[in-house]
């Protein structure tokens, strides 16, 4: 279902949730933000793929449990969206905080994962981060990744400064905010992030967090 077009410069959002009342509530909240606009909704994976193809959103807000009630439908959809539309950021918004689900969502291409009891400010911040091609995890979901991958015994391959950058990436901070925390320029942060991705052989910030957790360095 199409809502309406978004003026230039707006973050275009598609909502994927099988509960209409949830979509209505999210639309009401997000459309109050000057830089955000909900441009489409879907309640099934098939509808979601069609709406995304038609509306070209910046961000898809995705519940993992859709009409079938199975986790795999949302996870499969996440993977299809990120493979067919790599320019679109998928942010999981779900009721379930399960370590395995968080990790698999990242493996399937999600840029972030938040739980539905998140407050409005944090949700909006997460959407904006994903729109900037950044990963975003609150403290609970970041901890879930760490718990799931802590068993690895590999030694860290990152420098002390790079480890600090990874830790701040796991908290969902932007390059600008990381630079402010570490007293370095945003350009220097981008340099570190590129090096980290090269060393860990990954392509996204979310994968950085996942691989660093697997190495046990978070």
Give descriptors for this structure.
218 residues, alpha/beta, Rossmann fold, Arc Repressor Mutant, subunit A, 2 domains, 6-stranded parallel sheet, 10 helices, 6 strands, 51% helix, globular, Tscrpt_reg_LuxR_C, CheY-like_superfamily, DNA-binding, phosphoprotein
Write out the CATH superfamily name of the largest domain.
Response regulator
| Number of separate domains | 2
- The total strand number stands at 6
Lateral arrangement of strands in the main beta sheet: 2-1-3-4-5-6
Low-pLDDT regions: none
Structural class: alpha/beta
Residue share in β-strands: 5-15%
Give the biggest beta sheet.
6 strands, parallel
Second-tier CATH architecture of the largest domain:
3-Layer(aba) Sandwich
Helix content: 40-55%
CATH C-level name of the largest domain: Alpha Beta
CATH topology category name of the largest domain? Rossmann fold
Gap between N and C termini: 41 Å
> What's the helix count?
10
Shape: globular
GO molecular function, one term: DNA binding
Keywords: DNA-binding, Phosphoprotein
Domain Response regulatory: 12-131
Protein name: DNA-binding NarL/FixJ family response regulator
């Amino acid at each position: 279902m199409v809502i309406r077009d978004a003026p230039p410069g707006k973050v275009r959002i598609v909502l994927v949730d099988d509960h209409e009342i949830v979509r209505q509530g999210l639309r009401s909240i997000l459309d109050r933000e000057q830089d955000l606009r909900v441009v489409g909704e879907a309640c099934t994976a098939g509808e979601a793929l069609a709406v995304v193809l038609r509306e070209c959103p910046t961000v898809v807000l995705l519940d993992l449990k859709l009409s079938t009630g199975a986790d795999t439908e949302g996870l499969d959809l996440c993977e299809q969206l990120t493979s067919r539309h790599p320019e679109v950021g998928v942010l999981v918004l779900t009721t379930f905080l399960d370590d395995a689900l968080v990790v698999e969502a990242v493996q399937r291409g999600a840029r972030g994962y938040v739980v539905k009891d998140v407050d409005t400010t944090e949700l909006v911040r997460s959407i904006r981060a994903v729109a900037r091609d950044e990963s975003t995890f609150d403290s609970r979901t970041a901890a879930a990744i760490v718990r799931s991958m802590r068993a690895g015994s590999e030694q860290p391959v990152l420098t002390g400064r790079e480890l600090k950058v990874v830790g701040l990436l796991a908290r969902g901070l932007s390059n600008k905010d990381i630079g402010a925390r570490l007293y370095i320029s945003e350009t220097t942060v981008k340099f570190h992030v590129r090096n980290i991705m090269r060393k860990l052989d990954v392509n996204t910030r979310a994968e950085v967090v996942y691989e660093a957790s697997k190495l046990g360095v978070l």
